[in-house]
Amino acid sequence: QVQLVESGGGLEQAGGSLRLSCAASGRTYNSYVLGWFRQAPGKEREFVAAIGSFTLYADSVKGRFTISRDNAKNTVFLQMNSLKPEDTAVYYCAAGRIYARTAEGYDYWGQGTQVTVSS
User: Fold this and answer.
1) 3-17 residue pLDDT tens
2) What are phi and psi of 31, to 5 degrees?
3) Which of 12-21, 69-78, 94-103 is modeled with the greatest confidence?
4) Taking 90 as the threshold, does the pLDDT of residue 1 lie above it?
5) Separation of alpha carbons 78 and 112, rounded Å
6) Residue 99 — pLDDT band, cuts 50, 70, 90?
7) Is 70 exceeded by the pLDDT of residue 86?
8) Which parts of 1-53 are beta strand (E)?
């Protein structure tokens, strides 16, 4: 069992930066692939990035966002730079056993944190 709690969302201007954190609990945390997804109003949840022994990124965020993890602190981060209004969404942290770009590939989810980027 893994429990995930996101933090760090907020309101930022276009071109700015935000850093999201996801604190995880559970003895097997280090064995999971951790991912970030986002969901904008009226849209499906979409993959943003994932990290295990390597990293994956959605094309829409590649070069702007960086995913990292601190296993000693059971925390995964999403550094978001050069933010755009289209990055506005609720961002969710997820944990799963495989690398996946779809939500179905993840077993545990956080409650989400709102990111709003103004133009």
Assistant:
1) 999 999 999 999 999
2) -90, -5
3) 12-21
4) no
5) 13
6) confident
7) yes
8) 3-7, 10-13, 18-25, 33-39, 46-51
How far apart CA 75 and CA 80 sit, in angstroms, is 16
Which of helix, strand or coil describes residue 33?
A: strand
CB of 112 closer than 8 Å to CB of 5: no
How many whole angstroms separate alpha carbon 52 and alpha carbon 27?
16
The single residue listed with the structure tokens 């990035």 is 49
Residues contacting residue 52 through CB under 8 Å, at least 6 positions apart: 32, 33, 34, 99
d(C-alpha 115, C-alpha 20), whole Å: 9
HSE, CB side, 13 Å, CA atoms: give it for residue 60: 11
Nearest alpha-carbon partner for 48 in 18, 15, 14, 26: 18
How many residues make up the chain in this entry?
Answer: 119
